[in-house]
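Fold these two proteins, one after the other.
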Amino acid sequence: MKKLFFIAILIIVVTIGCSKDNKGIKGNITKEDLSQYYDELDGCFILFDSNQNKYIVHNIDRMNKRVAPCSTFKIVNSLIGLETKVVEDENTVFKWDGKKRFLESWNKDHTLATAIANSAVWYYQRLAEKVGKEDMQRYLNKIDYGNKDISGGITKFWLQSSLKISPIEQIEILKRLYNYDLPFSKRNMDIVKKIIVLTNQNGVVFSGKTGGGTRDNKFINGWFIGYVEKDDNVYYFANNVKGEEGARGIRAKEITVKILKDKKILE
């Protein structure tokens, strides 16, 4: 009887890890209740431990549900801009047009590196325009990015519009970037990996990008995605928060940092 019970549990784990609903994801998936970190927000958090080939998922019902990537798309937008030579490298400057925008930090000339660090939307809108619809669609198809839908317009399809991606798909894109498994040159992937580094302290490299979507001037969709390089391991994470208001990228980042610290991945 005990043997049969063990076999049943094993089948359940394998089924969860490799089911069709999870798009053939390989690796064990463990559900973990992290609701204490989210207060009033509806959150979905995924952590992938490379060495253990293990996913930890909070709110597993949402791991495959697609929502707008918002500014997390700047990672892929940067790759496409580099590959199409719209930008030469991380130092390519776009001149500010003089229009005052949402954040004061946007209201100046930016390079690719400063634009991603400050999440300057106008820079990436201009980059996307220069890439053009045809090449943008071609690359999204090649990398199989979410629903690949750019019908919302070349300057806004990722901004709470037509393009959608799930938390588990965000993880898989990050893994492919880190492992040079995307259809971009190694040089260009290295540039993007460099410009998303947030901190590099005591041998621990913390990389990531926030994103936030609004409706009626209220933040309803927040993201923080990235990875931590530590002790010859890579921990990938994707955190999406939803709510009637207050679901900002910075909030998703704060929650993620707290979880990673509690799990001793960050200090």
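Now the second one:
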Amino acid sequence: MFFKDIIGHDELKRRLIDTVKSGHIAHAQLFEGSDGAGTLPLAIAYARYLQCTGRSDNDACGTCPSCRQISALMHPDLHFVFPIANKKQRKEPVCDDYIAEWRDYLKATPYPSAESWQQFLATGNSQPLIYVHEAHEIIRKLTLKSFESEYKIMIIWQAHLMNEACANAILKLIEEPFDKTLFLLVSDHPEKILETIRSRTQRIKVPPLATDTIATALQQRHGLDSQTANAVAHTAAGDYLKALEAIQLSEERERFFTLFVTLMRQAYARQVKELKRWSEEVAALGRESEKRFIGYCQQMLRESFIYNQHRPELNYTRPEESQFLSRFAPFINGANIEELCELFRLAERDIAQNANGKIVFFDVAVQVIILIRKGSQPA
């Protein structure tokens, strides 16, 4: 990862580069912000720039031995710590047990996230953590002399997932680091990091990306037209990963949109037989898709309610959804919004508890008939 590969943050990149040029490099820095803002890519690009022997004014050269080693994620003076789940049943699991998977993941995922890393590891419901044994590895690696570069760099991704014992074990090293040793902590929940560690870091706040920055990236990197790119970027709310997710899930979202529109139109027309067929169609999606569809319905109800406030900057919908809401939103108001939200919340709970989808969704449809009519009555 180079600075040039990272979307936006031109001013932040300039400040990071200036620290290297001036030699004013804090020994412990905390990159805080969402994964979709590019916190880890920024930390890696910064480490690359520090280690590069042929750096320019704006970026690493990409051709020196150091850059080639970092591209392969095999630089002997750049170390990674990341959350792991003890899938391999090691007695004392450490990140080096998963380093091959980590390299494959980073090469395939320019903008990593905790969720996609967990899916890549196939850990199921097991929550990856940074265990206390990792602290011993961190100390061992940093006590060694540098192999090739001026700095030894330790990147700790998702630093808030260090358990307390691990955090306490490396505290002294962060307080009194070895010469030319650099800690780069990365977290989207910095408030969960041990306060004694957090207070000893230089905070690097990575803000959400501007909408036009995301839109430009979607056009240049994914071939979206201007209108679609702007709509997707708006819904992403400064998070590039959410924009990518919206592109990847566009086919499913279109199907959900059709199902939502069908539900509301048939409920308004009181077409009970058609709604029974609708509930059977939704139940055939499969349990995980059913849960995502309920989440989509909840989002559309919220967007409908907000649409009535005439604050378009607060709406996060695609053009076809906005067109539908312009006609549908008046039926979602103070008379029924709370009951509708509760209805779908209960449906989500029931589906999660393996209730029969046909029964759950037909009950939802019948209740929507009543609540849509309630919202259409004069106040």
